[in-house]
Amino acid sequence: MIRIEWDDAPLSVQRIAVRRELPPAYLTRLRRIAVRHGLFIVSPAATPQPGDFWLGCTPDGGWGDADPQLVGWVSLFDLDAALDALEVTADDRLLVLVG
């Protein structure tokens, strides 16, 4: 799990939800972040749960009872900013762990 700042609030991220149809460059960046930090990657068929970060997609079954304070969502237009936030946070975490 990593913590990021998103929408001016902290978000703990354990899973990244994404459609496989994203351009390969995005998927490569996501996989690298996920592998480095033990994050799961799930499809939109997953049920939203705390610690999810939905990137450019929405749950196939709807949001249900998902708490918007504990589940992040990003439109396709903000995908670059979301990946940057995940990477910066990931890099900061490495610096803290090494130090």
State the main characteristics.
99 residues; alpha/beta; two-stranded antiparallel ribbon; globular; disordered C terminus
List low-pLDDT spans.
Answer: 95-99
Profile the largest sheet: 4 strands, parallel
N-C termini distance:
19 Å
Provide the structure class: alpha/beta
Q: What is the overall number of helices?
A: 2
Shape: globular
Give the beta-strand count: 6
The topology string of helices and strands comes to EEEHEEEH
For this structure, the quaternary state is single chain
- What fraction of residues sit in β-strands? 15-25%
> Reading side by side through the largest sheet, how are the strands ordered?
4-3-5-6
Helix fraction, binned, reads 25-40%
Whole-angstrom Rg: 13 Å
Q: On the 0-100 scale, what is the average pLDDT? A: 88
Explain the overall architecture.
The chain is an alpha/beta fold and 99 residues long. The chain contains 2 helices and 6 strands, in the order βββαβββα. It has helices spanning 24-37, 79-98, and strands at 2-6, 9-13, 15-18, 40-42, 52-55, 72-74. The strands form 2 sheets. It has a 4-stranded parallel sheet, with helices on one face. Strands 1-2 form a two-stranded antiparallel sheet. The chain is globular and about 30 Å long. 23% of the residues are buried.
Explain briefly what this protein structure is.
With 99 residues, the protein is of the alpha/beta class.
Describe the protein's topology.
Elements: E1 2-6, E2 9-13, E3 15-18, H1 24-37, E4 40-42, E5 52-55, E6 72-74, H2 79-98
Parallel strand pairs: 3-4, 3-5, 5-6
Antiparallel strand pairs: 1-2
Helix pairs in contact: 1-2
